[in-house]
Structure of Cell wall protein phiA:
Amino acid sequence: MKFSLSAVASVGAILIATAAAQITPPFYLQAFRAGIPFPRDRVSASFSNLWVDRFGSQNATCEGPDRGYANFYLEGERLHLLSPPGVTQLVFTDRSGFGRGQIGYLTNPTEIPPRFEVDGWHFDANRDLHFRGQNLIACEGGPSGGWNLRLDVGIIEPGCIGVRVHSTDEPVPIVCIYH
């Protein structure tokens, strides 16, 4: 196996826990609907959104092959995309009436927009991902036939279904910048 120096440094940097926040090892996410996986069940990142069952490239610049799905890590209650040193890609949700549970990511944010929330991501006992106890949904109609992941904020959305988003440790993490 070959690893680039920056990939090893990036993974090593996130594994060092700080006193302020515990950092998890890198993982990927899989989405299940009623216990049945999507054909392409791993969560991908592109166009500032998270997707499931999206066909094609993530439009990411990776230090290795773009496998069509994203790697993540949790730093305290903040969910990050696994990015190279010096790049931060932070996952947010917008639970406002305007955002309706949108989930996206910001690259190198200097400030978080007022409606966006970044603190509150966590795993339950089964390693399923939640935001402040709320579940996720997937809404059809994304590019290349994908389903857009959102937070279930209790608003009935046509074309959306409840999903369970499960985390699995990534044995060979790939560091990417997602566009």
